[in-house]
Structure formats: structure tokens, C-alpha cells
Amino acid sequence: MNRLSQCAPPARSQRGVALIECMMALLIFSVGLLGLLGLEARVMNFSSESENRNRAAMFASEVASQMWLNGTVGPGTSDYTTLIGTIADQSKGGLPGGVANATVTVTPLTGTTNTADIIITWLEHTDAPGNLSTLTTRVVLP
């Protein structure tokens, strides 16, 4: 007898097991890939929101610098009102750099002459229509 004839033929219950294993591996790989794609979409949203918050903070810093130059928390010069007016220009997309539907409010604190809050609000593309993102900066002049 030769050696090949001594091996038992594969059992009928083992047929197709390799195919099922390959399909299961493909299923697990697909689920992992879909999870990575979902994670990438969330990262892109967080990146966009962070960029908009950074633009708002830079604009608030410009407004605060103009207050320091004017020596008052109120609108003292035309430069100040022009700076505030640039955010109201919706043709430029709101905040410089493209933050849409942005508004700036400068509110002097009651009872003080040298303190004000700069409040910048804007609508993120992921926000609900009534849910605005807000950045508040308090300026205290000497």
C-alpha cells in the first residue's frame, strides 16, 4: 500500500470550513474598517469646531487689543466700530476665515468703568439651528 491510500479521506463535516473562516475574517475586518471611518468623521468635526473656536479667540483678542489702545471698554474710535462691523458682514462669512453666522457683543460690566465681556457666538455646521457655539472673553483695563 502506498502512503496516500493510508490517509483517511476528509470527513464530510469539514467541507466548507475554510470558506466560513474566510467569511468571518472578512466580516470582522469590515466592522473594524467601518469603525475607523466613523472615527475619522468625528475627528474632522472636532477639528473644524476647534478651528472656529481658535478664530473666535483671535478675533476677541483683536477687540480686546483695540480696547487697550482706546483706553476704554466702550466704542471709542472708528477703528473699534470698524473691527466690530467686520464680523457683521455676512458676505465675508461671519468671522474672518469663514465662521458663518457669527455675532460679537461687547457688554460693559455694571458698576465698573474698566471691565467688559466680549461675547462671540456662531453657528457650527453640526449645531442645531437654535444651538449656537459661544466664546466669552473678559477684559479688565488698568
Account of the 3D structure:
With 142 residues, the chain is α+β, with helices and mostly antiparallel strands. The chain has one domain. It is built from 3 helices and 3 strands. It has helices at 3-6, 17-70, 78-88; strands at residues 103-108, 115-122, 133-140. The chain has a 3-stranded antiparallel beta sheet. It is rod-shaped and about 100 Å long. The model has no long low-confidence stretch (mean pLDDT 77).
Brief summary of the model shown:
Helices cover 49% and strands 15% of the residues.
Average pLDDT confidence is: 77
How large is the radius of gyration?
31 Å
Describe the sheet with the most strands: 3 strands, antiparallel
Shape: rod-shaped
What fraction of residues sit in β-strands? 15-25%
Q: State the total count of DSSP E strands.
A: 3
Computed structural class: alpha+beta
Helix/strand order, N-terminal first:
HHHEEE
Features:
single chain, 142 residues, 3-stranded antiparallel sheet, 3 helices, 49% helix, 15% strand, rod-shaped
List the helices and strands and how they pair.
Layout: H1 3-6, H2 17-70, H3 78-88, E1 103-108, E2 115-122, E3 133-140
Antiparallel strand pairs: 1-2, 2-3
Helix pairs in contact: 2-3
